[in-house]
Amino acid sequence: MIAESRYLDSNQERYLRLLVDISTFKILQAYADGGTIFGKERLGPIYLNSLEGIYASINEGASINQALQEVQEDTLTVSLVKDVIRTLIQAETFVCQERGFATSKEYSDYWEDVYRGRCCYYSNLDRISRTWDEVASEFNREHLLFSRFRSQHLYDIGKLGYLIIGNMLDTVHELSVIIKCNRQGIIEEVNSDLTRVTDKICQEAKDFCKHLYGKEAFRLSKKETANLLGSNEGCTHLIDLTYDGLETFSQWWYTKKF
């Protein structure tokens, strides 16, 4: 299997590709390239040999972090590696038999065990209207298994402050977040829309957005953002998308340029 991720902003671009064994999810090759859009500063291409032999699995976080020590200062590459691995895990449902599961129901039951209590959906399995295998049965995937796109836009709206608009669209989900800050960077309003989600119970995660009100958008860490948005009772994708927006704002706030 090949998993790829691309990042692009006004200053730089980055590409990351993992080649993994479809039956074990062992990483066979990790490759990165990119650099600044203008000028001659280039990252690579480079091969992240320390990742070879590591399993792209939810249970291998410590091993992955250790393997990334050699590029830990390159936070963008580290972020892309983890993003690609998360995408592989999402795609796993469409190759579950190659991964050793007899049926999609067996795979769904496995996830209910290992991911229980980690998000709004898996923290409320007694209240969901459909199981994961029922969700996955709506999709027929053979070659292109899973796609995900995320974007962030930051607008200066004069005396009214700033707008941070984030969108995420993937094979299963579709959601957006709009954050309004005043001229001091304080969050005044947050609106989120979960257009497509795993289950209707995921909609409850939107209620946590009000906890961002009054916070300095340029200071919030990923952990703080996750806690404010409900942590294990929130939506992982909403947390990621919201933090992407806050990080975009923070990068601009401290440099006053894109």
Summarize the structure.
With 258 residues, the protein is of the alpha+beta class. It contains six helices and eight strands, in the order ββββααααββββαα.
Walkthrough of the structure:
With 258 residues, the chain is α+β, with helices and mostly antiparallel strands. The protein has 2 domains: 2-92, Enolase-like, domain 1; 148-255, Sufe protein. Chain: A, CATH 3.90.1010. Helix content is 26%, strand content 25%. The protein contains 6 helices and 8 strands, in the order ββββααααββββαα. It has helices spanning 61-67, 75-91, 104-114, 132-136, 222-228, 236-255, and strands at residues 2-8, 12-20, 27-36, 46-47, 148-156, 162-170, 174-181, 187-196. The protein has a 4-stranded antiparallel sheet with strand order 1-2-3-4, with helices on one face. The chain has a 4-stranded antiparallel sheet with strand order 5-6-7-8, covered by helices on one side. Strand 1 (2-8) and strand 2 form a beta hairpin. The longest helix has 20 residues, at 236-255. The two termini are 35 Å apart. The mean pLDDT is 94.
Structural class, by secondary structure, is alpha+beta
How many discrete structural domains?
2
Using the alpha-carbon principal axes, give the shape.
Answer: globular
Spans of at least 5 consecutive residues with low confidence: none
Q: On the 0-100 scale, what is the average pLDDT?
A: 94
Layout of secondary structure:
Layout: E1 2-8, E2 12-20, E3 27-36, E4 46-47, H1 61-67, H2 75-91, H3 104-114, H4 132-136, E5 148-156, E6 162-170, E7 174-181, E8 187-196, H5 222-228, H6 236-255
Antiparallel strand pairs: 1-2, 2-3, 3-4, 5-6, 6-7, 7-8
